[in-house]
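Hey, can you fold this?
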Amino acid sequence: QVQLVESGGGSVQAGGSLRLSCAASGYTSISNYMGWFRQAPGKEREGVAAIYTGSTYYADSVKGRFTISQDNAKNTVYLQMNSLKPEDTAMYYCAAADALWIGYVWNPEKYKYWGQGTQVTVSS
């Protein structure tokens, strides 16, 4: 059974950095389709970064500030977040899919596995 466990969230001031980790278990190798999503109170869950068969994708709102990467030896996906803004405040979730069409990379309904989330709070 695939399990995803996020860590690394916390509270930082605007302009600061955090690195989120997502440890995957139950895979013989980490999925080719991994994503980071976030959800702020009262808002829909939105995708911020994804790895799709080795290629990386970013939402416009985080492009140039966030970096997604993976360590296959550790079955872990990371989200390095720099130049954080108050509007980045949200619960961040790691997600994985067994199969995914590129057109669905930002669609949370197409990801089968989810972590429990880690809170990121950015103060001004």
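Oh, and this one too while you're at it.
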Amino acid sequence: QLQASGGGLVQAGGSLRLSCAASGRSVGNYLMGWFRQAPGKEREFVASVSRSGYATSYAESVKGRFTISRLNVANIAYLQMNSLKPEDTAVYYCAAASTLGEVVHSTARPYDYWGQGTLVTVSS
């Protein structure tokens, strides 16, 4: 089970750090990803990190502003979000994929497990 947290209300230009904690499974056995869904829009990819943390992938819209990381010993993955914009407002979901190897995934299909989502609201 995945539990996302850390969302909230922040002004444009501000920062938030989202956390994704796993229970009942070891995060180190999965590549991790973050997705988001804004009101009235499709769910979209945000970032992905490989099992070891060495490989990462980002959506163009967040490159240079967001950083995905993981701390396997603590069974947690993070999404550090800086320079937030109103268009970043969405429910953010963490996900885990059991794909073997040092890979990342930027589509939703390979992900086996999903958290419940945490709301991020960026005011202008």
